[in-house]
Amino acid sequence: MTPAPSSVPPSAPSPDHESTAAPVEPHRVLVLNSGSSSVKYQLLDMRDRSRLASGLVERIGEETSRLVHTPLTGGGAEPRERTGRIADHDEALKAAAEELAADGLGLDSPELAAIGHRVVHGGLRFSAPTVITDEVLKEIERLVPVAPLHNPANITGIRTAQALRPDLPQVAVFDTAFHTTMPEAAARYAIDVETADAHRIRRYGFHGTSHAYVSRKTAELLGKTPEEVNVIVLHLGNGASASAVAGGRCVETSMGLTPLEGLVMGTRSGDIDPAVTFHLKRVAGMSADEIDVLLNKKSGLVGLCGDNDMRVIRRRIDEGDEQASLAFDIYIHRLKKYIGAYTAVLGRVDAVAFTAGVGENAAPVREAAIAGLEELGMAVDASLNSVRSPQPRLISPEYARVAVAVVPTDEELEIAEQTFALVSRGNADSPVHSDN
Ligand code: AMP
Asked: What is the CATH number of the domain that holds 136?
């Protein structure tokens, strides 16, 4: 696996590109989500929004690296797997490119319109998808201090993809972008303004691509435009966040400077008295890094009961496990507080939408979170709630004033849509706000 730099493996003949056909407009988008030791990718055909292939490279840099590539054209085929050390992101992306090429979907194809990158932190500057220039990349680098775990990996992914296809537009789609419409009253912490501004300390919010997609899909489900509805989106995955979306604009979200704030998550504590951290330092003698690990990796559901998978927690509750039961109750209590708070923030709520791994699949979480909220106009119909489906659907009874919905999220599709829209209309108007 040592192809020359800046080269992509040549494609096998494309399944939808016959040699006699007229030149085809570029219509594919590769979506890349680069983590510190993993790269997830999806190739989409934007003519019909279909997926052509998806894959995951994990444990990059270890002896036990693994690539799983799933071809999805023509009814799909069995996933293919490679194991053995993949040294870095460069090798990972080249291995993915080889797998795509073997399916006739090589990155050298003229059908590829752009590469869309998930970038976690765009600060205040990037409020929309942006074509990546040297200057944009520098700005993403400048934001590393507020996203030390995420932005470096995203930057590595971008540089690697640029080296592979230097001629192709590369677009950054920011997790924070959707939340840049939050009013100052919601975005500022009540701390000394000079200190906050000097260190860019404010509430940025994350999961924005999902909140944007789900709030729009929820409006669609209600037969309305996004401008006509106020929606509370509950993105409940291993990471979890809530947002209040008024007329298509985010006005409040639960994550803050980092993804640690807000809801109880799989491994993160969510809201906590900041004095707990001083206490841990002074009394327990823990370092800042140890506290960071405790609150981000060893708290939330895993800290409370040892498991962070909601399926396992529900099974334990069914078997009478009190620790799992208490963890579930704490999780739900926090969720309910946010639903109440966001109802107050919005004034009028048209819909509550559950999404992500837990929100889409865990009927008991949805039932418990909405239970007792009849005074807010919210209720869940037990039989509708028990339906399993990949489609957006209502789970509230007809009489309920507020629609409660399950709306599967699709961050890759949203990144591809935003990327394709930007490159299709030209990139003259990539919006850049005043500096933060
Ligand atoms: P995500 O981060 O959106 O991929 O969500 C991952 C989480 O979703 C897992 O940690 C589980 O807690 C939860 N999850 C996935 N499938 C189910 C399911 N069928 N029932 C309950 N929870 C689920």
From this structure: 3.30.420.40
